[in-house]
Specification:
The two termini are 49 Å apart. The protein has an eight-stranded mixed beta sheet, sandwiched between helices. Strands 1-2-3-5-4 form a five-stranded mixed barrel. Helices cover 31% and strands 23% of the residues. By secondary structure, the protein is an alpha+beta fold. Helix 4 runs antiparallel to helix 6.
Length: 604
């Protein structure tokens, strides 16, 4: 017999009754029934119940073990009586009577419980992540991640994509988020950058003629963290040659729809070929965001024209100054008290906005200051235009267009949550398309790129030469599921002349383009195919499938919200010799400022 096991803790069944077996695993639970000890023995695969009584030499040893000790048990498979069968376990029809046991490793007192999965502070869970990962939900999340990645690989290779690896040590780029920098020992004063994405390398693979590339790519961004963002993450990075935007969509939709259908567990999924295409301008108007959650049925409307001349002076003043008014419906709120509407206004203020106006309507009667000043006839006309009923409320976001859109989008989500309108048990996908190529930077008082500087402008050189830059659209697209952006992508600008012109509009000279993007621009001068691609985030895909609100719940060893590894103690201080080797001198921030920063962040 094998030194440690003849079977795993999920294998045994009634067909094995009478067999002598050997199992190894962790002591998950123990129950002492007065001379009879029941032990749930757990391994990677499952749980088997072990039984020891006074006739077993294993009783004393097992009884003295702490939970999570590792033990090997030899014993006999027995059938459970009908009333003790556990239908929740694959091994629930049998138990193993322990004849002998051997301790492989004794556990000390646990820093957090494994069985039962009680809520526990995240700092403890991350410090002892190797224990946290033993818990059923976490173990399941990491195995789900494994299965998703395996399925992604199968689906991509099935479409003729080839998997290649791109460098981890690269050059820093002035575009995008903040880089993680790695000092060079051999080249004093120079630094590598960890890849924010393999963007340039995958495009150069297309220039090299490989046609269809993908990889499960590690990426690094030194940016502020939130629940759906990690400083190091993985994405399904892919690129294709001789393709249009529609070709990219047709390649990716079956992969994403297929993955979600495979692991959805009875939740519905938007079918491949049916992902809605929503222009960016429409998304910002109707949803107040370029990451719309289509499970939310509420739509925002522009009602600026209704307040050009109004008894409600505040809105009339905003509109007269070039601002807009957006309306968010609150259906069937006739049973809601005034407090519901006031709470929404207070919420908007707590989020940093000036406030959220509202109108109530109950049995056809309007209420609230806006309705009183705007007048019942004008309000009725507005309601008729929006298709609202006699018991529907209405919220208003007013101000500069970007500010009003942002507030309206947040209010749309908040109202739907409060009224429990968000559809459950489904994954709703959409493409956001037709992003503007440029935007006006109010702080720097100049035109700049709005999304991705390496995208092909719609209309190519003719558009760059003849159109107002703020009217030029790009072949850029995002894919969104349930309000989460899963990826950005684009048809790339593969022509040097168009690239130089696009950067010129954004204020970059030819010399600056050559200096900052020399590898790519030189490659394009030597024959580049039209190409495009995208890069769905694997962490967010698994997060959605696992129904987890926090991305750290689907990463085996994540950093915390302050980008620290509490388990391994990273980032850590290094010695003077190591710093001298890489030609780096550290400058500590003033202690008072550092302490204030920790306090502002809430500490560890």
């Amino acid at each position: 017999m094998h030194a440690y096991r003849s079977h795993t803790c999920a294998q045994l069944s009634k067909a094995d009754v009478g067999e002598t077996v050997r199992l190894s695993g962790w002591v998950h639970k123990k129950r002492d029934h007065g001379g009879v000890l029941f032990v749930d023995l757990r391994d990677h695969y499952g749980i088997t119940q072990i039984v020891a009584d006074e006739d077993s030499e294993a009783l004393r040893l097992l009884d003295g073990l702490r939970l999570e000790s590792v033990v090997t048990v030899d014993g006999e498979v027995k059938a459970r009586s009908a009333e003790t069968i556990n239908s929740n376990l694959p091994t629930g029809e049998i138990e193993v009577f322990a004849r002998s046991a051997n301790v492989q490793s004794q556990a000390e007192e646990l820093p957090l419980p494994v069985a039962g999965e009680q809520d526990y502070p995240e700092d403890i869970r991350l410090k002892y992540r190797f224990v946290d990962l033993r818990r059923e939900t976490m173990h399941g999340n990491i195995m789900l991640r494994n299965q998703v990645i395996a399925s992604l690989r199968r689906r991509m290779t099935g479409q003729g994509f080839s998997e290649f690896q791109t460098p981890i040590l690269g050059a820093s780029s002035p575009e995008g988020a903040r880089d993680y920098l790695v000092p060079s020992r051999l080249h004093p004063g120079r630094f590598y950058a960890l890849p924010q994405a393999p963007q340039m390398f995958k495009q150069l693979l297309m220039v090299a003629g490989f046609d269809r590339y993908f990889q499960i790519a590690p990426c690094f961004r030194d940016e502020d963290l939130r629940s759906d963002r990690s400083p190091e993450f993985y994405q399904l990075d892919f690129e294709m040659s001789f393709v249009t935007q529609e070709d990219v969509f047709q390649a990716l939709e079956p992969v994403l729809a297929g993955i979600f259908e495979e692991f959805a567990e009875e939740r519905s999924v938007t079918p491949a070929g049916e992902f809605p295409r929503i222009p960016y301008a429409e998304a910002m108007l109707k949803y107040g965001t370029d990451k719309p959650d289509l499970r939310n049925p509420l739509l925002i409307s522009d009602v600026t024209g209704h307040f050009e001349k109004s008894g409600f002076g505040l809105f009339e003043k905003i509109v007269g100054g070039g601002g807009v008014v957006r309306a968010i419906p609150a259906p069937d709120t006739n049973e809601k008290s005034r407090k519901f509407f006031d709470d929404m206004n207070n919420w908007a203020r707590s989020e940093g906005f000036a406030g959220l106006g509202y109108v109530t309507r109950k049995g056809g009667e309007f209420g609230g200051p806006i309705a009183k000043n705007h007048g019942p006839d004008l309000m009725a006309g507005l309601y008729d235009e929006l298709g609202l009923g006699e018991n529907d409320g209405l919220f208003f976001a007013a101000g500069k267009e970007k500010d009003a859109a942002k507030l309206a989008g947040a209010a749309r989500s908040r109202v739907a949550e409060e009224l429990e309108l968000i559809e459950q048990g489904c994954f709703k996908f959409c493409w956001i398309v037709d992003f503007p190529m440029f935007e006006y930077d109010e702080d720097r008082k100049k035109v700049d790129f709005s999304h991705n500087p390496f995208s092909m402008p719609q209309g190519e050189m003719e558009a760059l030469e003849d159109k107002d830059p703020l009217d030029i659209l790009a072949w850029q697209y995002d894919i969104v599921c349930n309000g989460y952006e899963l990826s950005s992508g684009a048809i790339r600008n593969h022509r040097p002349d168009i690239m130089y012109k696009a950067f010129e509009i954004a204020g970059y000279s030819k010399e600056e383009v050559d200096a900052n993007f020399s590898g790519m621009i030189e490659a394009f001068k030597l024959g580049a195919p039209p190409h495009g691609g995208s890069a769905p985030g694997i962490d967010r895909i698994v997060m959605l499938l696992a129904d987890e609100p926090n991305i750290r719940e689907v990463i085996a060893f994540p950093l915390n919200q302050r980008a620290q590894d509490l388990m391994m103690g990273a980032p850590n201080a290094v010695g003077p010799k190591q710093l001298r080797d890489i030609h780096v001198r550290t400058i500590e921030p003033p202690k008072v400022a550092s302490d204030e920063a920790v306090q502002a962040d809430g500490g560890d």
